[in-house]
Predict the structure.
Amino acid sequence: MLTKKEPWYIHVPLYIIILILTYLLIEVAIVQPDAIMKKERHFKNESRLRMTDIKEAEILWQKRFGKYTGNLDSLITFIKTDSNVIKMETAIDTITKKSKNPFVALTSGEFTPDSLYFAPKSHRYYILQVDTNQSVDTVINRWGRIVSIDTTISMGNRYLLKDPDGYGKVGDLYNDALKNTASWE
């Protein structure tokens, strides 16, 4: 039984197609997902650093005004203009010779207050909320009649900072144990 050999010019294009498909498979399955994962890690780290800086700003705001704020504009203006915050950013501890700056540097470089408005991936604003509690107290005389009803509304005892891209949150509106606590810590 004699078999006829196929000519070489039929096999060469097939080998070229196999090489091209192998290259495309490696590119799509290995190289591109690695680049996407590096970007995702960068966005996650950068966003968490920004949220840490917002948390530190909220702590400074609470020390200064006695409550937290739910307004991101006011908070960033406070960071830029308050004399105590500016002094703290440049102060150095006399004993340890370390900086007293409560803000951490971002992965892209130095700390800039204007970068705290938005998440690095989607460029959407961070979600910042404060709690509002209403407590009602009824005063009853000894005959069982209602004398008065006192209503007290308190705001800013707790705050919640959420990342619009889903990289975490800081604080909680309902639980004091989670005050100033990041979800990734």
